[in-house]
Amino acid sequence: MGLSSMRVRTQNGLSDMRSIWWEDAIVKAIDQRLLPERLEIVAIKTHEEMAETISDMTVRGAPSIGAAGAYGMALAWQSGIDLVDASRVLKATRPTAHDLFHAIDRMLSAGDELVEAAKDYADSIVEKCRLIGEAGNSLIEDGMKVLTHCNAGALATIDFGTALAPIRVAHRSGKKIFVFVDETRPRFQGAKLTAWEMANEDIDHAVIADNAAGYYLRREVDLVIVGADRVAMNGDFANKIGTYEKAVLAKENGVPFYVAAPVSTFDPTLRSGDGIVIEQRSPDEVLIVNGVRIAPAESDALNPAFDVTPAKYVSGYITEKGVLATDELAKMLAV
Ligand code: MRU
């Protein structure tokens, strides 16, 4: 499976694992829909199954979706399936995360050994997230209270995380920190997944309702770190719905707001965030909670999965190349 650092409590005690990996000619992944109640591993044998796994969010989070795309291409390659056809199926799953398209395009030009290429791709993302953790740790001081939105942890990135990597490194280096975990309606990635990762690591944290973030940003939060699904070259970025309002409130209250993302999340073809396609998901995700409909039968719902935050709200970008200012992005990412 390669290097892994995410600590998971299993029936046999603590083990280190990744969220998705290649094993014996198939792909295995943690079923993120079932956490925190159950830790179950799914086996994915074809690129069509992989596409389903991405669409239904068994595997989610931009870099993990990228790895899923790369592994999906490897599954198609070993079955002798036309790679351009397979790439179309995989790309048609979720439109917003740049990593998916970046990873699949990498596989299309990877030559004639796609299993090793996909494994290398996953390893390189893990290493980038490790470096993001080191770079972001420099922003976290002992005693700080950090707010994060959605899940940009090891589950979302194969291992380490983007937004959660600096928090992991800070905690492991002995800094005392506290994490405000936005619950992240409608799918609760914060309450279910980020809180699960924090609990596994014994990192002090509390889940807060999404609409409590302003209350805490005004009085207690020292630093905000979020992940990203796609960053335009001017620094505008898409992330989980609700990120934009946290960024505005952070600026209003003088709280530094950082975006953590590997270079694979930056889209060199986009000058600004205006061109980012926002995935619209089923109204049922908003209307039905734990199997129970919470709104009148007559009510519809709107469910954009992401929003775009303008660069003017961002204090810096934590990447594998270090912490970058907005005006450094174009130069650094061209390297
Ligand atoms: O819809 P999701 O759960 O895939 O959305 C995930 C996010 O918005 C994450 O913050 C983003 O992918 C960054 S993951 C390091």
Structural summary, described in words:
By secondary structure, this protein is α/β, with parallel strands linked by helices. The chain folds into two domains: about 5-125, Four Helix Bundle (Hemerythrin (Met), subunit A), CATH 1.20.120; about 140-335, Translation initiation factor eif-2b, domain 2 (Rossmann fold). The protein is built from twelve helices and 17 strands. The chain has helices spanning about 45-55, 60-80, 85-90, 100-110, 115-135, 155, 165-170, 190-200, 215-220, 245-250, 285, 330-335; strands spanning about 5-10, 15, 20-25, 25-30, 40-45, 145-150, 180, 205-210, 225, 230, 235-240, 255-260, 290, 290-295, 305-310, 315-320, 320-325. The strands form five sheets. Strands 8-7-6-9-12-16-17 form a seven-stranded mixed beta sheet, with helices on both faces. Helix 2 (about 60-80) runs parallel beside helix 4 (about 100-110). The longest helix is centred in the middle third of the chain and has 24 residues, at about 115-135. It is globular and about 60 Å long. It starts with 5 loop residues before the first strand and ends with a helix. 5-S-methyl-1-O-phosphono-5-thio-D-ribulose binds near residues 150, 162, 227 and 228.
